[in-house]
Design goal:
It is a single chain. The chain is mostly helical. 30% of the residues lie in helices and 4% in strands. The protein contains four helices and two strands. The longest helix is centred in the middle third of the chain and has 14 residues. It is flat, with a radius of gyration of 18 Å.
Length: 145
């Protein structure tokens, strides 16, 4: 019978800060004053648009990431992340929330130091944020906590 072997946790190498260069990302902006838009006496709804790129639902993780086997589902997560980073760098008014760290970690490993510096700047500016902190997005709603 097949046995399950847990993945070994490894210590990630310390990534040195890249040499100073001009980043394409805009300077950090102040957070949006969401509470100032609250309307007392009414139900105020806060929506958080985010990714939900399935990690191995209909296709393998590799197929989702590179976009192969499009007859099942036409996802190419590698291109989604790259496209989002490009769009954020071009337009400082845009923001994006990414969830599935399984795909982001793989994408990150493929990036050079210049691209990584741009992504760090996007996170620092508040344009790119991460939600959930999980390897994949869970499918259960968390309406109460």
């Amino acid at each position: 019978p097949a046995t399950w072997t847990p993945l070994r946790r490894t210590t990630a190498p310390v990534i040195p800060t890249p040499p100073a260069r001009e980043s394409k990302a805009p300077p950090r902006r102040p957070p949006t004053p969401a509470l100032s838009r609250r309307v007392p006496g009414l139900l105020n709804v806060h929506l958080v648009p985010h990714t939900h790129d399935d990690v191995g639902w209909l296709k393998t993780v590799d197929q989702y990431y590179v976009g192969s086997n499009a007859s099942i589902q036409p996802a190419a997560v590698r291109h989604i992340i790259s496209g989002v980073v490009d769009a954020l760098l071009k337009d400082p008014s845009k923001t994006f929330t990414y969830v599935e760290m399984a795909f982001f970690a793989r994408w990150w490993q493929e990036q050079g130091e210049v691209r990584r510096a741009d992504v760090r700047a996007l996170v620092s500016s508040g344009q790119l944020s991460f939600a959930n902190g999980g390897w994949c997005m869970h499918d259960e709603a968390a309406a109460h906590f």
